[in-house]
Write a structure and sequence with these properties.
This protein is α+β, with helices and mostly antiparallel strands and 255 residues long. It folds into two domains: 165 residues, Endonuclease, Chain A (2-Layer Sandwich); 90 residues, Glutaredoxin (3-Layer(aba) Sandwich). Strand 5 and strand 6 form a beta hairpin. Helix 2 crosses helix 3. The protein has eight helices and 14 strands.
Amino acid sequence: MSAILGQVIDDLAATHRSLLVVNDDGDDGRLAAVLDYFEVVEPERVTAPGLPASTLVVTDGQQCLSAASVDDVHDYLFGYWDAERGTDDIPSDLATRVQGFLTALDGRVCTVEEAGKVPMVRISRHIEQRAHTRGSGSIHAGFQRLSRLDNERHTLDAYRRLAAAGVETHLYGVDDGRPPTVDGMTVHADPDGSVVGDYWFVVDDGDGDPAAGGALLTREVDSGVFEGFWTFQAEHVADILDRLESGVRPQLDAV
């Protein structure tokens, strides 16, 4: 497993943000599922009369960064996803509320099994959509194996649209099947999987705007088990991009 990208995950794992449970109403089923997803074993529970029942608060230890109801976060994490089509029908108002909450968890390293990847997929779609709307800059996406683009046609179509919109598009993966040639899209093939074979990532450079970039970076630590984080912090995005461009790409075959 390559340490070039993995070091970013390891460094952030030591400085994660915390979740507080505020005004717990005792309905532990939905709360337990959310806490399990974010790997919170013994959450701090507090009472705050000014907040509704069953509220989750993100804190950096000094201040409240964001808050959302347990019901909203649970529905976002576990509802609405159509696995067959790789899409969801999540209500736009719910998406807006919870994406703000997830952004406050920026940089928190989580470990999820295959079935729990939906929120990370949604974050990747959000990053892709921001790049598509802008229509410039570059985006880098790693799929572990390039053959996944044949099996998940909706994903390949999404990156074709990004390239057509004017976003310089780079795709990475083990060289076990290459997508068709598309103007504006470069494929970086890993001959033996030792460099990017364990990594799933999406990185948008923001076209030079520090506030516009974003990244999702995960690695497969066991069969179907992924560890990683998302971030919209400019310094983290720049670090990942630098590692891709100066450390990863020179070891791959551009096709």
